[in-house]
Amino acid sequence: MKPLSGISVRRTRGYYRFWTAFFFVMVFVLLGGLYYATKQVDYVWRWYRVPQYFYYQDEIEITSADSGTIAGVEEVRGRTVVTVRGPGFEEAYELPAKAEPRMSEGDLVFPGDVLGSYEEWKPGLLLQGLWITLKVSFLAIVVGIVIGLFAGLARLSENPALKWSAMTYIELIRGSPLLVQIFIWYFVFGTLVNQLLAANGLTQVPPLWFGVASLATFAGAYIAEIVRAGIQSIHRGQIEAARSLGMSAPQCMRHVVLPQAIKRILPPLAGQFISLVKDSSLLGLIAIRELTKATREIITVSLQPFEFWFVCAILYLVLTFALSMLLQWMERRMVY
């Protein structure tokens, strides 16, 4: 059954054609207005420069570390081995099979001279930023779900310690901006944790994990409220019926309440996850090169802000649209 099918007014075919045409005319007018405005500011569009920031061919050079003479250039098992001999030392540089040697036997070399080079395809800044955004968002969603589920159940608990802890956590997180929380995680908790680790001779935690923690704790507070509302939406009669059949409280929650509550919390969860993906753009302020920060770096070099901000927006749209479709598919699978 379609939503609002009982109260919608029947429309004629001409009505839909008119408003469909109106929509496309409006889109074309907006695009045309944007193009006209860019012409007025004498902006030159250079879309052909965009692909190189997705994937590019890099030239890898193998350089000499010391000065000396090329003692030999020979093929060993499909690879080229260049031997540099100097006063009191002899070094062998193994070049990949696809590398082209640039030196011959008897040539003089100095530190930094190129012995050979080869070309290799590498992901550009946009792909690297997209990957970091995906990685951070996925980890934050998974951890946020775990935090939100436990906090939501604790919020409904009759145990005062659990209930008040959950309420304090939710109000603290919801009462301050995400950007402030990211700075607290990075500059306060990050400094304390890394200094303690360094004092004990342990490896320090990279900024990415403090970014994930800030996003996860932020999303967890909102997910907790979504979980609480979903559980409370289940009619009390079903819980009483389950308990009268001999189920314990955990069994009732697992077999009766949660399966129904999950179907109801999926739509608001989708909105929360999409919001989290977009919020990950703030992590660029703590030196995490996610998609927005990568775009800013590209614009600094290329001086082409129009093209790359549009590309950045389209990439975010692709991410959020794919996530929305996935959650809608999960919702349909659970309903039918």
Compact overview of the structure:
61% of the residues lie in helices and 14% in strands.
Describe, in plain words, how this protein is organized in 3D.
By secondary structure, the chain is of the alpha+beta class. The chain has two domains: 59-121, OB fold (Dihydrolipoamide Acetyltransferase, E2P) (Beta Barrel), CATH 2.40.50.100; 125-335, Orthogonal Bundle (MetI-like fold). Helix content is 61%, strand content 14%. The protein contains nine helices and seven strands. It has helices spanning 13-40, 125-156, 160-174, 178-199, 207-232, 236-244, 249-279, 291-302, 305-335, and strands at residues 55-63, 68-76, 79-86, 89-95, 100-101, 108-109, 114-123. It has a four-stranded antiparallel β-sheet, with no helix packed on it. A three-stranded antiparallel β-sheet has the order 1-7-5. Strand 2 and strand 3 (79-86) form a beta hairpin. Helix 2 runs antiparallel to helix 3 (160-174), helix 6 (236-244) packs antiparallel against helix 7 and helix 7 runs antiparallel to helix 9. The longest helix has 32 residues, at 125-156. The two termini are 13 Å apart. The model has no long low-confidence stretch (mean pLDDT 88). It holds the Pfam family BPD_transp_1. Part of the binding-protein-dependent transport system for glutamine; probably responsible for the translocation of the substrate across the membrane. One of its GO terms (biological process) is amino acid transport. One of its GO terms (molecular function) is transmembrane transporter activity. The chain crosses the membrane at residues 16-37, 130-154, 166-188, 208-227, 308-327.
